[in-house]
Design goal:
alpha/beta, 5 strands
Length: 187
Amino acid sequence: MVFSQTLAEHVAAVATLAGLEPQLQALVDDVAAALRGGGKVMLFGNGGSAADAQHIAAELSGRYERERRGLAALALTTDSSALTAIANDLGFERVFARQVEALARAGDVVIGISTSGNSPNVVAGLEQARASGARGWALCGRGGGALRALLGERALVVAVDSTARIQECHCLLGHLLCDLVERELTR
């Protein structure tokens, strides 16, 4: 019973992604343009979203399904020295913003991931992306929260309430992003 109910919730959540196709294609276009132009993709989030950021960055810098050159992608969640120093000196809300300030340039793409859309450090990181001239995008859930208010159509909102279902959909969106970027850059 629980299995069937959980599976049905997952299928219903995934079905909501069909409406995000135009936004996902715009994100793919931005990422491909950044990489073609010598830019990079930076990703970040907290907890499971941090793991999603690392997963997507690894698929882009390594390979997803096609043999191709490595792509400049990094997760800002992996450097424990930077994370702890910045959190200690500037506060946890600045852990991503400070790294974006140091690393992002015009033409780069910065992707923040937050199931609620309201994580203060993710919002601050994307505000810094704007100030740095980078193109900010978000994967979020529920109603999109502060990230939708900040980014408008550049916030891909998984419009369900369950954190687990949102994270499952973020993983799928990440795989779709990697697949479409690879196809774009290898044709």
